[in-house]
Amino acid sequence: PLVGYTFKNKAAAAARFTYSPTLLHVDNLSLELGDDLDFDLDNVYRLTHGFHGTAFLRTYINLGESKRFGLFNDVRLTVGGGQAKLITGSGKDLTGTYEKSVDLQIGVSPGLVAFINNFIAAEVSVGVLGFNFKWIDQTTDQIYTGSRRSSSGNFKINLFSISLGLAFYL
Predict the structure, then answer these.
(1) Is residue 154 a contact partner of residue 105, using CB atoms and an 8 Å limit?
(2) CA-CA distance, 12 to 57, in Å (whole number)?
(3) pLDDT tens digits, 27-55
(4) Are 105 and 98 in contact (CB under 8 A)?
């Protein structure tokens, strides 16, 4: 869900909350890639829960004299985190890893809006610029600990980040 408030003509602030659970369970997988590369996975179970909150500022620009079509630009800040557990093997070979993560994303997403009537609009946007930061702490078998930090930047159009949606204006 997304909730926004237009505080100035052609400018709005909004917030969104996202929960994303994922589950992977593989009983047995064998993969042969060529003569020298083989993979075997037995009893793999991974459960992940992710929570993210996004705040963004949106500005609108009319296309010509029409008030039905326009361009917009979102500047987004996303903060979130999650936890995951990975269990592999069985019996004496059972091993498990618990993981906590924190994410920070800053991005820009331009888009196009078409008002169907005064209260409903169709929107399409694409992420073109963004910075991602991630901190992960892990514990394996309640003995071994580790952490990793990663950061990345995106300076191109990512076709996998296209968003389509309907917006309802009250």
Answers:
(1) no
(2) 6
(3) 888 888 877 888 887 888 999 999 999 99
(4) no
